[in-house]
Amino acid sequence: MLICVDFGFLVYSMGLSHTAVLIPRLKEENNTFTFNDQQAAYIASVYSIVSPVGYVLGGTITDFCGRRRTIILGHICYIVGWIAIAAAQNISTILVGRIIEGVAKGLTAITGFVYTDEMSDPRLRGAFSISMKISVLLGILLILGLGTFLHWRTATAIALSGDIVALLGFVFYMPETPSWLVRKGRLRDAHASLTKLWGPGHETQSIADRPREGRPRKTTPGQDRYVRLSARRNPIASATTLRHDLREATGVVVSSQTVRNRPHDIGLYARRPLKTPALRPHHRCARA
């Protein structure tokens, strides 16, 4: 899960910093692309200008279609935008690609945070948040390095391949969040999502609530055997009596309930003292 989400933020940051290397490269190929400083400013700023549209659409679509489908839609938009830029023959096509990427940024960014928050364990959310920030920084470093040493079309194609990897991960591996499925009344799908995420028998989002082996035993196998033999030799002995004998013999202090539990393995049950109500005068009269 973490790899797929981090790939999404990696591509998000690559699109954010793409123009830092794209515009200088385009100016070097002035014979192919003719544009002025105003058009260059449009290419650099349109990505952030249209991002609020993606945020609004993402918040609406994620409630109706789910977090997973919204992220998949965002990655598809990113792929279309990268293809448009990589195959562009004029400035208008690059602008269209940047607009599509800006909308995709809003779709994936807001939904990615929601998806991570609903799918991760509360104790691990801090680590997941840090990994997403690191992915953003790595994406900026990666696109700047690719744009410096490679042709701008090659760098765009490499960014496109990263988005394809993230898309395939969400399509074939990542489940829908159980929180959204429960909100829609799809309880069976929510259980299946938790099972796929945590594994059978661990259908919980909290590490503290998962099944564990339990507390360590207070007595050793030899002490358990002593309690069972004492219970077998003295069938009328109470749990308090057996507990006292165990303490005198081994020095181990345990509860009466622990002593009652040990003979259960061989079918013996320590007896509790029988408490009967006191007889009233009318009871005595009824006996006469």
From TrEMBL:
InterPro entries named in the record: Homeodomain-like_sf (IPR009057), MFS_dom (IPR020846), MFS_sugar_transport-like (IPR005828), MFS_trans_sf (IPR036259), MFS_Trehalose_Transporter (IPR050549), Sugar_transporter_CS (IPR005829), Transposase_Tc1-like (IPR002492)
Domain Major facilitator superfamily (MFS) profile, residue spans: 1-288
Keyword Membrane: yes
Coiled coil start-end: none
Keywords: Membrane, Transmembrane, Transmembrane helix
Region annotation (Disordered) ranges: 201-224
Its membrane topology: Multi-pass membrane protein
Signal peptide: none
Name of this chain's protein: Major facilitator superfamily (MFS) profile domain-containing protein
